[in-house]
């Protein structure tokens, strides 16, 4: 659920795991138009390598991959041409997540890769339907929503939930062992540096009302 640049980037390694079968993608955006990425050819190059199609192109505005049609095409191409699944029936593409939940009743799990403000709402919708969840950080933008997600997850023990954190520093076990062993004495202060936010985080609810995209 959510098949923009980050959704596609994390779709690629999932395709290569035989334990997983992706049956549907969902995103309001149909075509690859207006997407941004860290580099012009980063994602397109990764896609071409995974699906073994060096001339693959995203269409749309011809710049950065994204959108449900790209997602469907990537899944279909991989399972048909790389995994060589003889009985492959094709990946479904949905514009509205509510339609996905209605029509794909037999799915086991969903991965939520939408913008942050939808994480909590969609997680709760999935839990209500007994679907396991793989969700990108954060649990929600609002504390009240986050608490509701945690409460629902605890009250539905048959549903497996996993929040995907991000850590570029590696394991902190060694540092914690030093602290716990008293190697640096009594810990009094922790100084932390960060380059965040690298994009606007919008602590307030936006006031502008842009037109709904095509």
**Radius of gyration, in angstroms, nearest whole number:** 20 Å
Mean pLDDT: 92
Q: What level of helicity do the residues show?
A: 25-40%
Q: List the uncertain runs.
A: none
Number of strands: 5
Q: Provide the β-strand percentage band.
A: 5-15%
Task: Characterise this structure.
By secondary structure, this protein is α/β, with parallel strands linked by helices. Helix content is 35%, strand content 9%. The chain is built from seven helices and five strands, in the order αβααβαβαβαβα. α1 packs parallel to α2 (42-51) and α1 runs parallel beside α3 (68-82). The protein is globular, with a radius of gyration of 20 Å. The two termini are 18 Å apart. The model has no long low-confidence stretch (mean pLDDT 92).
Please write out the topology:
Elements: H1 5-15, E1 24-26, H2 42-51, H3 68-82, E2 92-94, H4 97-103, E3 109-112, H5 119-128, E4 132-136, H6 143-155, E5 161-164, H7 173-180
Parallel strand pairs: 1-2, 3-4, 4-5
Helix pairs in contact: 1-2, 1-3, 5-6
């Amino acid at each position: 659920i959510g098949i923009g640049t980050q959704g596609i980037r994390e779709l690629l390694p999932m395709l290569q795991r035989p334990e997983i079968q992706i049956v549907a993608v969902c995103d309001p955006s149909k075509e690859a138009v207006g997407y941004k990425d860290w580099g012009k050819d980063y994602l397109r190059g990764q896609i071409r390598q995974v699906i073994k199609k060096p001339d693959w192109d995203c269409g749309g505005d011809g710049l950065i991959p994204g959108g449900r049609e790209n997602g469907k095409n990537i899944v279909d191409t991989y399972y048909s041409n790389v995994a060589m699944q003889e009985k492959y029936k094709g990946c479904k593409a949905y514009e509205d997540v509510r339609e996905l939940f209605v029509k794909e009743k037999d799915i086991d799990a969903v991965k939520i890769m939408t913008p942050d403000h939808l994480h909590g709402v969609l997680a709760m919708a999935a839990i209500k339907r007994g679907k396991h969840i793989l969700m990108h950080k954060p649990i929600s933008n609002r504390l009240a929503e986050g608490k509701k997600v945690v409460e629902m997850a605890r009250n539905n023990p048959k549903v497996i939930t996993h929040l995907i954190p991000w850590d570029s520093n590696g394991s902190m076990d060694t540092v914690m062992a030093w602290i716990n062993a008293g190697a640096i004495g009594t810990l009094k202060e922790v100084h932390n540096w960060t380059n965040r936010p690298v994009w606007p985080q919008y602590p307030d609810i936006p006031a502008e009302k842009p037109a709904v995209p095509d």
